[in-house]
């Protein structure tokens, strides 16, 4: 099953999407995914005066809430790749919407943002060389801002191992000893209010930084819906690459596998090489990761994907089980971004859990803490 097949509208809804709001009285309204798709189509094709004259599409009276970057990002969430390519081509060639992909003046004056970064990654294949050069500067600035924040979180997480035998007076969240704090304050449990009142929070000391070498393999699904996770995985790989004792691999995949490990020191340039879109063969990517593992007990594989497998589920589960049984720590992330709100195949995710993997959704800072926790156990 593909990602897009889960959201296919009914035949009546397809006609309603084709004809626009003018057909709403006859065919009914839309909701959810179909409503979002209609808004994206109206944003583009509502500009066509011929369609308006034939009453095939009629825009509402309310102002559009989509900016050009927002529209680019939304269609990559809503439509399959062949439709996305047609929409982008019509936007540029038919309607002359060039604020992002062809107008260098706009790129040079617009405020860098993660939303604009996503739009650039989606449309860089449409840019001429001069515009692409300006886009690279924008990508570099957004990545610099993300990395500046994340690098601090990574350094803090890996600052030293937690030593549960020694208490600490250093009251910081990363050193909080949850279990001992609960045990020590159990006598303050209030049955009527169902609350535990903490009088004495306890904290753990840190010993010296780890010195053993670890291999970390980040496998990133580069389908269009995972663009936020791709961005943050690239920055995370760059931050980990700077740590002593860490060998970091970054591997992007769709139906093929591309090892980007040689570019992790420059995440902005790395992102410009990523090709978003296409199918998904997670099993092949996990198989590639297996070949990178030399010391299973000191290796981690972080699979960043929505788990909609286009390849063999059987092979994916088998290879995941092999990794876990060998001692590799396998973490599946359905989202790696600032929101950590995933949309993923829960059935396959549960099968991977049964095979020994851990599954979750994390912000980059939470992933750094998880990785550090595994290293420091």
Automatic annotation (TrEMBL):
Domain of life: Bacteria
Domain VWFA: 213-372
InterPro entries per record: LolB, Uncharacterised_CoxE, VWF_A, vWFA_dom_sf
Protein name according to UniProt: VWA domain-containing protein
Lineage: Bacteria, Pseudomonadati, Pseudomonadota, Betaproteobacteria, Neisseriales
Pfam families: VWA_CoxE
Organism: Iodobacter violaceini
